[in-house]
Amino acid sequence: MELDFSTEYEFDLPKGYVDSAGVLHKHGVMRLATAADEILPLRDPRVVQNPGYLTIILLSRVITSLGTVPKIDPRVVEKFYSSDLAFLQDMYQKINAIEPVMDQCVCPECGHKFEQPVNFTSAE
Fold it and tell me: Which residues contact 92 (CB under 8 A, 6 or more apart)?
C-alpha cells in the first residue's frame, strides 16, 4: 500500500544557519513528528527545568537535514536566529496539524452538496 500523503517537507530558512566555519545553510527538510518525538523530550532535564526548551529538542528531532550540516542536534537549533526558529515552529504546527474530518452533506431544501467539518465536541 502506497502512502497518499507526504511525510517530509522541504523548507528554506528566512535568514539561515551559520555554522562554525561561517557557511550559511538555508535549505532543509522536516519530517512529520511521531508520538515519541512529542513525548520523549518531556523527560529531558533541560525541558523539565525550562519548558521553553521543548521547541529546541522537538525541532532537533524532526529536522532531518539542513544544507551540509552533518547532524541536527539541540546545539545547532539553539543557534538559529529567532526569525528562523519562529518560521520552523510555524511549519511544525502546520505539517503536524490534525486535519478535520469532513462530512458529506446535502441541503434538504435545494439539494446542494457540500462538505462540513464534523464537530466531535458538540451534540448539535
Answer: 30, 33, 58, 59, 62
